[in-house]
Amino acid sequence: MLKVIGLKKKYGKHTALAGLDMNIKKGQVYGLVGPNGAGKTTAIRLIMGLSHMDDGQIIINGTDARKKPLKVKEMIGYVPDNCGSYFNMSVNEYMEFFAAGFGISGIKAENRNLKLLEQVGLEDKVEFIADTLSRGMQQRLSLARALIHDPEFLIMDEPTSGLDPRNSFEFKRLVKELKKSGKTVLISSHLLSELSEICTDIAVIENGMLAAQGSLTEILGRIEHSNPIKIVVLGAVSSAMAVFKENPRVKAVSRNENTFMVKFDGDKLEEARLLYELMDMEVPVCEFVRETGSLESFFMQITNHDEERVIIENDY
Ligand SMILES: Nc1ncnc2c1ncn2[C@@H]1O[C@H](COP(=O)(O)OP(=O)(O)OP(=O)(O)O)[C@@H](O)[C@H]1O
């Protein structure tokens, strides 16, 4: 559906995108996550044709975005990070204004706008001046506007940023509904945990480049793999140490009395083998468990801001 190949963008001497690649398939809710300044908004603005790329290619449903920007805009609904001003229009006038931009007017526009405002829960706000709506309501209005031309692809730039938990939950519920109705969604955030609730796929961007990409299941698998195994023994500490030293999958061990934290680079079968080796050496193991890590700690690791690594040191 959307292919981004080697996307580059500089602002003066500053490189915002240094060859970004993305591949989004139909029906995916694709989360673009990265720290502040990573290049998310720049990438989205280039896809939307709101800024010129220095190099690279953006292909949407086989159409080159640089060659046919208008055709691409018809396929995409865009929810920007900043809704901007609503020029003192009522909610209804605002929707009519944008519907007219897509050539939708009269009764058709009226019906469509009402249906969309119902979908985002603003049907009782049609007479309200849009500028006076709360931030959460404005975000939902922005979503309704993005859906006016019934695009198959939606791009949302940090839509939950600045929303309170209730409004953020409500917005995520709307995204889930859009996925159910067959839309493909690209959504950015600087919080991986925000996206993990709604996304099927995640791409982590750092310094204008892709740092990691995969399905949510793959990413969660990598999180588990990057966590240490906690092993508690009831004695035979030196025998346990000997096992750890011999096992090539053990990368580091730290110990606090009878509790070991073992950095282990192996799959489930290799974990089972390690446990078997401990039993074989008659080490009384009473606990053997992979620590569960958070999405944010994984994010910190792959974007090189990991403080947790320090605790996993080889101290024997
Ligand atoms: N118009 C501009 N002129 C100069 N530098 C810019 C401009 N827009 C963005 N940048 C810089 O490019 C880099 C990428 O910015 P961008 O807004 O794309 O990041 P982001 O990941 O969306 O960040 P945030 O989460 O803070 O919105 C940043 O270092 C930013 O300061």
UniProtKB/TrEMBL annotation:
InterPro entries from the UniProt entry: AAA+_ATPase, ABC_transporter-like_ATP-bd, P-loop_NTPase
One MF term in the entry's GO annotations: ATP binding
UniProt KW Nucleotide-binding keyword: yes
Pfam family, one: ABC_tran
Keywords: ATP-binding, Nucleotide-binding, Transport
Domain called ABC transporter: residue spans: 2-232
Signal peptide feature range: none
Family classification: Belongs to the ABC transporter superfamily.
Protein name listed in UniProt: ABC transporter domain-containing protein
Source organism: Johnsonella ignava ATCC 51276
